[in-house]
Design goal:
The structure is a homodimer. Chain A is of the alpha/beta class. Helix content of chain A is 50%, strand content 12%. In chain A, strands 3-2-1-4-5-6-7-8 form an eight-stranded mixed beta sheet, sandwiched between helices. In chain A, α8 runs antiparallel to α9 and α8 crosses α13. The longest helix of chain A has 23 residues.
Chain lengths: 332, 332
């Protein structure tokens, strides 16, 4: 019998817990406090009293209890919190476990990917037992049982296959990939592009301008990602443009919302303060900006998003730069 | 002084006429009848009485008048009408003119691209003087002066450069490409994907499913396009995913509308009868389906759209096929 631990009771973590429980997989979710664990337990029972999957999910704030006999540990915390949580968990992780990261971001201070952070903080685990799940996956729709696809990537095929088997469900079709770097960068950097696309919408520049921004922004991401060791094809797959389209087109993206509000003239700290959830793209923009700088990689679009967020560049400057096609050397 | 003839008084043709007139380029638009020419003339003056660009546009139903001293002939008729219009015009075309096609479609009966049709029907013109303009270009936004980008492609660089110069404007940034086949196929086949994306929306499957459909559908288009001689990179540029994003995400696309209505259970002939404009994707689906068949190319997504439109496949079958990830061998 497969047993799963989920580190972090985020919206997406809870969605995955329900998806696994519906497959009758025993899933234990770690919440920060006993109080939080109790609230989540009550919420689950209230919302789903007539559904027998509920019995497969437990909540606890005791790491040792959550990890007990776990085959998989799923990391469902915001990207900037992963290092801290991994440190809290590391003593309980054994080398027979498979780690699956769900966070879509890069560490702001270091530019590191989430799998790198897990490797650094959990000495007992081989990089071959780490993977990422990423794709066009709006939680809300998956909770409703609407069909979706996703990608699980690992440097080791066997690990990806095992994780695929874990997550695959009638309405959740999971593919595997060996391009861990690419899938991680797709998930992280699409949030930067979504932030910028939100700015274009906030400036009310229209769908033509937005599509131009997304296309040239993604082109930049592909080149940066390739310079960082990813495979270009990954960026055009489900974890790439699939996720990008969902994030930029829908109105459900927090990153798009942040860009929109900032372009409408609200200071970033006010926008952040008013949000109950974290928009991963903000810190990931810092990471992407630093990575590009340290590689001496020309990233005019990432730099533009960065400058609007952190360097007082007036959002209207985006309009001015459009007149120059955003960048002279753009591929078409 | 540059002089332009536009064959066809379609919405997009009239938008381009206004764009050129604002650059003080004398533009003569051909309408089918004297009556239509008069109506368009009145509309233009009523809408823009205080704008002095109006004097640069003339309307006529006399082909010889429209073509007089034209340096460029712009083809702004629906794809299935281009051959007939080209036959009407061919006697007046001289080898010093540059032809620019605006239609985004393939001929249903032959699967041919618009530049192939122009070459076949106008013996006096070299293929080196034919180009296409294509990109994320919603007419409505361009009429409002919102910023947009587009791509002009020709097998001859010099021709593309000249057309770029013609169209480039402060809020209309034009890039050039040498991949005529690729840019034409992008514009045509994105309408097939948009039709299918409309079906996914019509079935109310959500944004995750829609993004999956678009991503795997476009993957199929790239492979088919490459088999037909296009460059893969073109499909990921402005004329490719740029146009695709605008068409599939917005609610302004006629092709998306057709797919939506059909998936909601309306017969195709009723949907078509109720529309005042042509949805190019319908006939282009016939062409794409035949092209794939004749190349023995595996195109499950194009075939699925075809079967729903023309072969009585119940739209709900799309949902069933999602459970299988749409196609087993999908790249991710």
């Amino acid at each position: 019998m497969t047993t799963v631990a989920i580190a972090g009771a985020t919206t997406w973590g809870n969605t995955i817990a329900r998806l696994l429980a519906r497959k009758k997989i025993a899933t234990s979710v770690w919440a920060k406090t006993e109080e939080k664990a109790r609230i989540l337990r009550d919420e689950l029972h209230d919302a789903s009293s007539d559904d027998n999957y509920v019995k497969y999910i437990t909540f606890s704030n005791i790491i040792a209890d959550v990890l007990k006999s776990a085959d998989f540990v799923i990391w469902a915390v915001p990207a900037q919190n992963l290092r801290g949580v991994a440190r809290q968990f590391h003593a309980g992780i054994t080398d027979n476990m498979i780690l699956v990261n769900l966070a879509k971001g890069l560490e702001a201070d270091t530019g590191k990917r989430m799998s790198e952070i897990l490797s650094e903080e959990i000495a007992s685990i081989s990089p071959e037992r780490i993977c990422v799940l990423s794709g066009p996956n709006l939680s809300k729709e998956i909770n409703l049982g609407l069909p979706a696809t996703s990608v699980v990537a690992s440097i080791k095929t066997e690990t990806a296959e095992k994780a695929r088997e874990l997550f695959n469900a009638p309405n959740f079709h999971v593919f595997t990939s060996s391009d861990l770097i690419g899938v991680e960068l797709c998930g992280a950097l699409k949030n930067v592009v979504a932030l910028g696309a939100g700015m274009v919408d906030g400036l009310e520049l229209g769908d033509n301008a937005k599509a131009t921004f997304i296309t040239l922004g993604w082109d930049e991401v592909v080149l940066l990602g390739t310079a960082l060791g990813a495979m270009p094809a990954t960026f055009f797959g489900l974890a790439g443009i699939g996720d990008l389209i969902t994030t930029c087109a829908g109105n459900l993206s927090r990153n798009h919302y942040v860009g929109y509000q900032v372009a409408q003239g609200k200071p970033l700290h006010e926008v952040k303060a008013a949000m109950s959830h974290i928009a991963e793209g903000i810190d990931t923009t810092i990471a992407a900006h630093s990575l590009a700088h340290s590689l001496r990689f020309d990233a005019p679009i990432i730099n533009m998003v960065y400058s609007v967020l952190f360097d007082s560049l007036p959002p209207a400057e985006i309009m001015v730069r459009f007149r120059n096609g955003l960048k002279p050397e753009a591929r078409v």
